[in-house]
Amino acid sequence: MSDEEWERFLHESVAGAAGAPVEPSARAREVERRLRGRSGQPEGWRTYSPARPRRRTGWYVTGLVAAVALLAVALFPQQVVGWFGGNGNGNGGGQDGAPLSAESESPRGAPGAEPDLRPTLAEPFRGSPAAHWADGAAGITVPPAKATGWMNADQVERALARSRDFLVAAGLDSRVLRGERPARAIALLNPHQQDVQEYLRTALSSTAPTESTDPLLLFSRFRPEQARLVGDVVKTRGRLTYREGKRGAVEVAADVTFVYPVTPAAGGGGRDPEVIRTIVRREVVMSWDDPAKVITEPDTMSLVSYALDMTNGGCAAPTGYFVPPFGTAGGRSADKAQQVDPYDRSKPIDKSDGTRATGNGCGTATRS
């Protein structure tokens, strides 16, 4: 071997011959093994593929619509109720048996017309707007409490709760409805208010009450031998409001309509007993007085005023009980001045006589 060939041999032994295979490193072997386990086109371990942009147009539109809807509810609540089946008269809902939302303000008109269907024992509220009302105390809306007059917010909340308790005890207690003494309601009245205490003594003991001593002015009662309630549900709709009254008192005003379905106590005979709805609306103003300024007892209130409007409760001289007109034809008066819608809560009760209002008197209700 010549010197030149020997020198080339030594050089190639150190640097490696051109085209000779190279042993891959351990890292390279690991990458190659992972790539073989994947399907599709492999990516290099240092390459980068940018993520595809997401389309968010739908979410933006949904958010915009929701924001507009919330704004509309805040600014025009009554109109929005009308879009979804309400009648725009403060009586939202009630379509196809759906319950009405709570009454938070005075309605602007009477409820919409209902199918002219006769009530039955199985469906005593059929054909009546009351079919969509709440049951019992649930239909009496109580507003949020805030400090007023001599009371802080917690005390006002308690006064509102006690005011509703009075309405429940006077108009929904099953024993009172059967003619028993309204003891729970009386317990909430200031025992030092002499004129009211005198009214109670006379009204609940007299067998011949007058217009001013009729217990129906405050309490709902039926003679058990003449009428009985159908089922155990009384429909109600109304609300409480409050303000600061005289001498810093908290004055709570109630405006509530009660619907009592009744049937003759003896059953009325036949397979299809008669069902009549006695409809009673009451406006009661209660004063929760500051004990530092008015003689009173804890958890009792004074009565400022009370008024009654009733339909199918009797038109003759007061008896102290509602007298449903069972067996009457129920024809409507041709004189529109004598016709009244007992479900129209958009107008206050006529208090022209100072104590009691019968509204339709012996006129005819346009519906019951």
Descriptors:
368 residues; 2 domains
Description:
By secondary structure, this protein is of the alpha+beta class. Helices cover 24% and strands 16% of the residues. The strands form two sheets. Strands 1, 2, 3, 4, 5, 6 and 7 form a seven-stranded mixed sheet that branches. It has a two-stranded parallel sheet with strand order 8-9. The N and C termini lie far apart (130 Å).
Mean pLDDT score: 80
DSSP strand (E) fraction?
15-25%
Low-confidence stretches: 40-59, 76-96, 330-335, 353-361
How big is the Rg? Answer: 39 Å
Total beta-strand segments: 9
Short description:
By secondary structure, the protein is an alpha+beta fold. The chain is 24% helix and 16% strand.
Topology overview:
Elements: H1 3-15, H2 26-36, H3 57-75, H4 77-83, E1 134-135, E2 140-141, H5 153-171, H6 174-177, H7 183-186, H8 194-203, E3 227-229, E4 235-244, E5 250-264, E6 276-288, E7 302-311, E8 339-340, E9 364-365
Parallel strand pairs: 2-4, 8-9
Antiparallel strand pairs: 1-4, 3-5, 4-5, 5-6, 6-7
Helix pairs in contact: 3-4
